[in-house]
Amino acid sequence: MKVLFVSAEVAPFSSVGGLSQVSHFLPRALLKRGVDVRIFTPKYGIINDREFPTKRVIEGLEIPTGEDSNSLHPQKLICNVNTPTKIKRGEPQVYFLENMEYYEKRANVYNYSDDHIRFGLLSRGALEFIKKGEFVPNLIHCNDWHTAYLIDYLKNIYNDEPLFENIAALFSIHNLYQGMFDFEHASEMDFDDGKSRLAPFFTERFYKQNALKRGVIYADVVNTVSETYSREILSEEYGGRLHNLFKELRGKLFGALNGLDYNDFDPRIDRILKKNFGLTTLNERAENKVELQREFNLEVSPQTPILAISGRLDAQKGLELVMDTIEFILNEFDVQFIALGTGDDKYLDFLQKLEKKYPRRVGTHLMKNFALPRKIFAGADVILIPSQYEPGGIVALEAMRYGCIPVVRETGGLADSVKDFDLAAGKGTGFVFKKFFKMSFLTAVVRALETYKNQKIWKKIVRQAMREDFSWDHTASEYLNLYQRAVEVRKETQENISPFRLEKRV
User: Fold this and answer.
1) How far is CA 373 from the centre of its chain?
2) pLDDT tens by residue, 108-131
3) 187: helix, coil or strand?
């Protein structure tokens, strides 16, 4: 199996969200299973040439824009393709698409008005790269709307070229963002049925064409990053106005839960922690709690439970429920509260005021920090994840690995990864609530705090959470099955249409 893994962000080169982690860890796990997987991604200006030196593989790669000779815009954009000069053992080869205007002069990965052009360029650039013969895959693995254009191009423009006839396409949906245009409120005039030819890069029509929708339509296999989420998007509530399309194509829709790198996320050897610990040395974890209280200027009190939130602070993550209940919790229980992350001003302002109102009991760090999450997971007792929806839920996996017990809403990847604690059976890894309602969330938090009072039971939950296996090796096995399914679907499709294509060519 030869796979070209195409992604808008890849750690450690360009890391914005969970997609970059998947793009780093999943290919590594696939490589261990014998898959010849290689990564294709832009070479952004944020990528440090000294830290990641590269060498030229292809110079002057001409990428069609779709514009005709009468257009004022260029018919082709010129790019280069580079690869790192050194590839560590166990790491897949990475190809960087290099373009000064659209990547190297940009300080960020996302949030530009011409992102549709930038990622259209990435999508078509990957196909032009394949044409050069440097690496010809059996399958192209595309991720989110940024690379969904590629699947449309593959099936409708490049399909008649012999090189591409048998290349399958897997489309992974990490979230339901559909492109730059506001498709939620699009007029009938701007509606994209997903079946018309992709417009030239620089036209208004290209801006209004739904990349994610097209990826779903034309991919051989589609997957979300959890099984529960793959079912949820069939409903109007979760489907982002595409629920009927998902229902129609549900035969090729699957779910594969994201994994966790257990070598990287290992409290026994993690250098970020004050004190390393494991299942057999769980008492050592208490030292990290004290360190966390000092770092966030909280009263040092080992017996006081710490509740925490970590990550993006916005409505999707359920911050409304936290706002509605946290003061009641602070007033009625002996608890401390920590908030880490960036997000909407509404929530940042609330958390700043909360910290001032409850000094030594509330601590915040409302900006990005790549070391603090692990310190929180290793020192806090409870992580709060009351999401409205959650395609993957990687934070819960990371927290459990470090013995921090999640309180989560039963949705998406959270439903697939956190088992509600059953006191009678003594089984479970967290506290789960169903309805997105403040009293449902509050009840789950109270259950956790009351259980915490019995330290014998609490430590049992912690051990059960830390024993959970969400390694990338398991996830890679699921993706390998999806790859094989996609290749088979592609083969069957080609066999069914080949007589017609032959007749057309003759």
Assistant:
1) 17
2) 999 999 999 999 999 999 999 999
3) coil
SS3 breakdown of the chain: % helix, strand, coil, rounded to 5?
45, 20, 40
> Exposure of 454 by Cβ count < 10 A (0-12 exposed, 13-18 middle, 19+ buried)?
exposed
Closest residue by Cα to residue 121 from 182, 73, 162, 189:
73
Which alpha helices (H) appear in 132-242, and where do they start and end? 144-156, 204-207, 211-218, 227-232
Q: Is the dihedral of CA 127, 131, 136, 138 positive or negative?
A: positive
The confidence score (pLDDT) of residue 505 equals: 36
Classify the C-alpha dihedral 159-161-164-165 as positive or negative: positive
At 506 the pLDDT is: 33
Q: Tell me the average pLDDT across 162-189.
A: 91
Nearby residues of 30 by Cβ (< 8 Å), 6 or more positions away: 3, 37, 92, 476, 479, 480
Span 306-314, average pLDDT: 95
The CA dihedral of 155, 160, 164, 168, to the nearest 10 degrees, is 40
Domains belonging to the chain, first-starting first, are 2-259+474-505 (3.40.50.2000), 279-467 (3.40.50.2000)
Nearest Cα neighbor of 45 from 93, 88, 109, 91 is: 109
State yes or no: pLDDT of 207 exceeds 60.
Answer: yes
Q: What is the pLDDT of residues 238-292, one digit of tens each?
A: 998 999 999 999 999 999 999 998 888 999 999 999 999 999 999 999 999 999 9
DSSP per residue over 231-267, as a string?
A: HHTTSTTTSTT-HHHHHHTGGGEEE----B-TTTS-T
Spatial separation of the C-alpha atoms in residues 379 and 119, rounded to whole Å: 40
Tokens representing 94 are 């990475």
Asked whether the whole model's pTM tops 0.70, one would answer yes
**Mean pLDDT for all residues in the chain:** 95
Q: How far apart are CA 120 and CA 65, in angstroms?
A: 9
Q: Which two tokens stand for residue 19?
A: 């997609």
Structure tokens at 244: 């009927």
**Cα–Cα distance measured from residue 233 to residue 175, given in angstroms and rounded to the nearest whole number:** 10
What pLDDT is attached to residue 129? 98
**Which are the contacts of 105, defined by CB distance < 8 A and separation ≥ 6?**
45
pLDDT over 80 (residue 43): yes
Residue 345 CA to chain centroid, in angstroms?
23
